[in-house]
Design a protein that fits this description.
With 286 residues, the chain is mainly alpha-helical. The protein has eleven helices and no strands.
Length: 286
């Protein structure tokens, strides 16, 4: 599994991005992060000698089958079968998150070494999250690939592969931040159904995802400042452009604040959602 240390960090990130086996991908990401911690900055930032290409389909196993979100099975917490479906959905998110982090390393040039190390840390931690969920599924006679999944996360990655600032704004600060909003309530439901094992896993993921969203926030603001842009206004503009002006609440304010959101940004999110709901209501015939 080990790749030669003569191969550049970003070239290795591409290799693991295109690796299909989830366990190999997770282990490779963890190894690459440790390697990057021990290299001088110039070795970390060195660009892939090949042309950086769009990755419309990263390495993934033949299963799960990818379907439209509306065709996914229900995630319920009061039966083991339902909890397996839920754990599988989270495992799919974490598998995609490994790819998202590796793509952030491979794709974008001219960022500081700390940026690449940050996203390799994310890739390594997402791999750990995936493995915890895969272990839970195995303990309950299931496996990743047993249930269908959707590809919405990677579709947004492809829509943002032309600009690192837009990627930082929309993937960690929108898609991954959504996990902060929903995870605590799901964990509480799991505990009420005596599945403390899965609730504990989600608790670990929640705590570390705060750090991942904070990394996205920090590098989004770095990019905005480098372009002499107001970060708050730019974020709102990008939500209008790419997300139709709305991301769904309710919002986990403590988690988002810990991840670097400002109270003004949270107020913006609520205002944008209220504006969208008002607009939708105005379009409903009497």
């Amino acid at each position: 599994m080990t790749r030669s240390t003569d191969t550049g960090i970003r070239e290795q990130a591409q290799h693991w991005l295109m690796t299909a086996d989830p366990q190999q991908k997770a282990a490779g990401a963890a190894e690459l992060y440790q390697q990057a911690l021990n290299l001088e900055d110039a070795r970390v930032t060195q660009a892939n000698p090949n042309i950086i290409e769009r990755v419309l389909d990263p390495g993934r196993p033949a299963r799960p089958e990818l379907v439209a979100p509306r065709n996914l099975p229900r995630r319920i917490t009061h039966t083991q079968a339902g909890r397996n479906i839920m754990a599988h959905a989270f495992a799919h998110i974490e598998f995609n998150a490994i790819n998202i982090a590796l793509d952030a390393v491979y794709r974008f040039n001219d960022m500081p070494a700390a940026y690449y190390r940050d996203w390799l840390r994310v890739a390594a931690e997402e791999g750990k999250h995936y493995q915890m969920l895969a272990d839970y599924l195995a303990e309950n006679q299931a496996a990743y690939g047993d249930f269908p999944a959707h590809d919405s996360l990677w579709e947004t990655v492809c829509r943002t592969d032309h600009d690192v600032m837009i990627r930082m704004a929309l993937v960690p600060r929108v898609l991954e931040a959504r996990g902060l909003d929903v995870t605590p309530a799901i964990a509480q439901k799991l505990r009420s159904n005596n599945d403390h094992r899965l609730a504990d896993i989600l608790g670990i993921i929640y705590d570390e995802e705060i750090g991942h969203v904070e990394i996205g926030t920090r590098w989004f603001r770095y990019c905005a400042e480098a372009r002499n842009l107001n970060a708050r206004h730019t974020f709102r503009d990008l939500l209008n452009q790419y997300m139709n002006g709305r991301i769904r609440g309710p919002y986990d304010e403590p988690g988002r604040l810990a991840a670097g959101f400002t109270q003004e940004e949270l107020d913006d999110l609520k205002d944008m959602e209220a504006e969208t709901l008002s607009r939708l209501g105005a379009n409903i015939p009497d």
